[in-house]
Specification:
The chain is mostly beta strands. Helix content is 14%, strand content 50%. The protein has 2 helices and 11 strands, in the order αβββββββββββα. The strands form 3 sheets. A 4-stranded antiparallel sheet has the order 1-11-3-8, with no helix packed on it. Strands 2-9-5-6 form a 4-stranded antiparallel sheet, with no helix packed on it. Helix 1 packs across helix 2. The protein is rod-shaped. The two termini are 13 Å apart.
Length: 228
């Protein structure tokens, strides 16, 4: 009977492990083009067994402006846009998701404006500050958000584990599109990009020795009472 109790105690101790998470958030802010290095702590295997790694990237395009001056003999209308794009890169870890696709590739926040211009009014070449609705139109933008959440492929977990740190670079570029207004001269003020990259480790935690023993002894006591 003593051996039966010992077996039940070991079984109780082995079943106490529970799911837990570690979250690391690193922010960035700059005027593209630019790059921000973000440093994260590796997952310490002594905490337990790593079951998933999630990478969430939030990108906000803030401000900026875009104006067009029609230099053609025809009126035009259509959407013009300004964008910022963030790409994540790393020489420390592999940024690959569960479908073997890149993580943090081409995350773009875009601001759009519906422009309408008349035919060129003879104000000369280049962007002229005519009254909007004549042959000149555009706007100062507000803020736009883009986000991406992906799970890291388990095949590359090894790079994220151990003692020490790794670096993920958030690189940004800026762009615009005025193709809807053919023959237009363009004036643009750059936007700012800000955001954050969150790394979340989910793991099966190794139970605290004291709590595991207490839990196991409690079960053992209960079993003894039931047998009386």
């Amino acid at each position: 009977m003593k051996y039966a109790y010992s077996f039940l105690l070991l079984t109780a101790l082995s079943g106490v492990a529970s799911a837990a998470t570690i979250v690391q958030i690193k922010g960035f802010s700059f005027i593209p083009a630019g790059t921000a290095p973000l440093t994260y702590n590796k997952f310490d295997p002594s905490f337990g067994t790593l079951t998933s790694i999630t990478i969430t990237t939030n990108v906000t395009k803030e401000g900026g402006s875009l104006f067009v001056d029609n230099e053609s003999a025809s009126p035009a209308s259509g959407n013009i846009s300004q964008s910022v794009t963030i790409n994540l890169t790393s020489s420390s870890v592999t940024l690959t998701d569960t479908a073997f696709a890149p993580i943090g590739n081409g995350i773009t926040a875009t601001s759009t404006y519906a422009a309408t211009v008349t035919a060129d009014n003879g104000d000369g070449s280049g962007v002229q500050a005519d009254t909007p609705g004549n042959d000149y139109d555009g706007t100062v933008f507000g803020s736009n958000l883009a986000t991406q959440t992906k799970n890291v492929n388990a095949f590359v977990f090894s790079g994220y584990q151990g003692i020490g740190t790794y670096v993920i670079n958030a690189g940004g570029v800026q762009g615009f599109d005025t193709s809807a207004i053919g023959g237009a001269a363009v004036a643009i003020d750059p936007a700012r990009v800000l955001g954050n990259v969150t790394i979340t480790y989910t793991y099966d935690a190794i139970p605290e020795p004291a709590s595991a023993v207490i839990g196991g002894l409690g079960l053992l006591t209960l079993l003894r009472r039931r047998r009386r």
